[in-house]
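Batch queue: ligand-bound targets. Current item pairs a single chain with zinc ion. No template structures supplied; prediction is de novo from sequence plus SMILES. Inputs echoed for audit trail.
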Amino acid sequence: MHVTTDSGTSETLLSRRTMLNTSATAAGLFAVSHPLSSAVSEEAAALRVQTVLGSVPAERLGVTLMHEHAPLVDWSELFETSPAPIAPVRSEMLAKTAGLLDAFHHSLNKSEGPGAVVETTPIRVGRYPKLLVDLAKRTKVHLIASSGFWCEALAPQHPWAVRMSVQKGGVDRMAELFVREITKGMEDPSGSWGERYTDIRAGIIKIGTSTYLRPSERACHIAAAIASQETGCPITTHTTTGGGLEEAELLLKRGASPGKVIIGHQGHMDDRENEEADDYHRLIARLGCYVQFDRVGHAEYAVPKQARQIVKLIEGGFLKQVLVSHDHAPYYCPNYAAAEKRPADWKAASPDYTTATTELAAELRKMGVSAADLRTLLLENPQRALAFAVA
Ligand SMILES: [Zn+2]
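Prediction returned. Tokens below.
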């Protein structure tokens, strides 16, 4: 792939790396060499990030992509149909996805690596904990898995979440489920709902809203706020063309800590009216929450547009509350509502997990963002957002 550098020349990722590795003055994305010791790292030292292979000190993550799907997404259970078969494509999925994550890892130099990816596929929409462990073992990139339920955007709410959202005491039971997934291990989707559990822990809670907040989504938000308050685990959200401010306000009202709330999918029509809702982003940031530009590389979230919006937040004094990612999924099953699925139903893509660290980073530098600020954005902010006192 091609990136445009500050000098206006175009070069491949490979040649950029060669340049970085051989240049005496350049130290990778951040161009200045300084140790990882800052107030942030000291504070984070007591806290850890919970990956699928166990907890690690936050400063070991390196550059972290905060909202990705790897290897897959499958909405079948939302339509009460069986998920697409994994076994026939499992090894292909692992090899291909590990290759894509390795490309991200290799795009980082030593002071930026090894790299981490937050896998934001929540309960029963293609989250297979054992598959994530096998993937993590095949790449140097750390993988952080999600508890939580998805929303009603583009598909119904999961029937398990609907049931808990209407039952007496159901929201508390949902919160208990999230806490269990964070402190003991995630549910194993090979059984019926809640029947079996793994000992693989989640390191973040993923929830979301459709265009407007639906009753089941409200239940998931309240449960997430309770679980986050109890464990310290961060919450990350899906938004659907707006709603991020309402999400943040609801989560905070229900006890979540602003520094553990990440409002996602920002960067396009976030106030439901304007393509670039800079004022709206500032309102979320003023609450103390993170504003996450996690669709870098998607058509309507063009890189220069995302960069402009990020720079506006930095100018407003909110550098430490900006996060980035791509929201890519190498595999998904488009026939989710079909009663029967075949291995051939899997749709595969080869998404690029390096756009944020190459194209977006170059654009931000071009717009005057310093190397140190870029490091804060790509490396230190994720550490702070993801770290908590792991049990
Ligand atoms: Zn996503």
